[in-house]
Amino acid sequence: MEKEIRTATTTEAQLQGEEFKSGVSTSEQEREFRAAPKLDTSPTHGLWALTNRDLKKWYKNPIQLIISLVQPIVWLGLFGKALNFGSFITSAPGVTAAEAAALMKSTFGVTDYFTFLAAGMLAMIILFTAAFSGMSVVFDKRFGFMNKALSTPIGRGSIVIGKVLQSTIRSLIQAGIVLVIAIALDYSAMTAHLSVLGIIGAFTILFLMSFGLSSLFVMLALRSSEWQTQMAIINLLNLPLLFASNALLPVKLMPSWLQAVVKLNPVSYANDATRQLLVGATATNSLAVDFGVMIVFAAALAALGIYLGWKLLQK
User: Fold this and answer.
1) What is the mean pLDDT of residues 218-247?
2) Are 130 and 220 a contacting pair, CB within 8 Å?
3) pLDDT at 31
4) Could you give the CA distance from residue 46 to residue 74 in angstroms, rounded to a whole number?
5) For the purposes of burial, counting CB atoms within 10 Å of the CB of 85, is it exposed (0-12), middle (13-18) or buried (19 or more)?
6) pLDDT tens, 244-281?
7) 34-92: per-residue pLDDT in tens?
8) If you count Cβ atoms within 10 Å of the first and of the last residue's Cβ in the chain, which end, N or C, has fewer?
9) pTM for the predicted model, two decimal places
């Protein structure tokens, strides 16, 4: 009995000594040990994890990347080179090459149609990539991943912005590849006004365009559970946004009623700035106007997408 008392006393003394050294009582240590870990409730918690999850599906499947580039390459290599307005003009009797170049400059803002179209193809690849950003929302809902994401501490705004960011990153990479292809097809014309600052400025406004359009299509997919519905929305909006812009033809060649529509289309402002920065085209608007419109467009749709994400995303 005396031995047990001595052992207990020795153990208590050792514990008291450890408490004295650490300056923390045993009860406080137990509370700290048993306390639940603090949850990360920051607005950006899990944002990159969600973004990278969708990007992996893309860069680990190179066939998907190649297929996405076929359409702009066909437009550039076949349509852009075949539709040679300069040759049409110079083939007319009495028209000199200088007069043809001046006419092309006054009509397209550049001296050849391929250069005009190449800048428009960057916006086209951005548009088509952004249009399919909402499809991943539909598939995540159908296969149960969205319910799992909504059960975690990740904010619903992060879920929306993650989808937007992955689409934006993909579209900018694809636009860079298209620009390289355009330079390879017509090196002298495409590099005459090319500069590092011009490329940075052009891809900045393409980022704003992609962010705004991706927010729009993700927002339209928040309540959709059928991929057929989302495809119908894409087909409804994609071609009007493309053809009711200055991506393929200058605004001055369009009828007056269509010119009014083109001025309301954000794609037109992105195209105008891209052409000024990359190929030195004659300006339709100032760069300040183009950037101002695209900043408001991207910010407004991103804010609306986050708000609707909180309202509409449910388990």
Assistant:
1) 85
2) no
3) 54
4) 38
5) middle
6) 998 888 888 889 999 999 999 999 999 999 999 998 88
7) 554 555 556 566 778 888 888 888 888 878 777 777 777 777 777 777 776 666 666 66
8) N
9) 0.81
Q: Using alpha carbons only, give the angle 215, 289, 102 rounded to the nearest 5 degrees.
A: 115
Dump strand ranges (E) for 37-188. none
pLDDT at 34: 52
- Collect all residues with Cβ–Cβ distance below 8 Å to 41 and sequence separation of at least 6: 153, 155
Residues 241, 297: contact at Cβ < 8 Å?
Answer: no
Angle of helix 113-131 relative to helix 62-74, nearest 10 degrees?
140
Amino acid type, 2: E
Report the sign of the C-alpha dihedral through residues 172, 177, 180, 184, in that order.
Answer: negative
Residue 90: other Cβ atoms inside 10 A:
16
Alpha-carbon gap, residue 205 to 123, rounded angstroms: 10
Q: Which residue has the tokens 């339209």?
A: 220
pLDDT at residue 295 is higher than 90: yes
Query: 253, 260 in Cβ contact below 8 A?
Result: no
125: its two tokens: 């690849």
Distance set, CA 64 to CA 60, 133, 134, 247 (Å): 9, 14, 17, 24
User: 230 near 136, Cβ under 8 Å?
Assistant: no
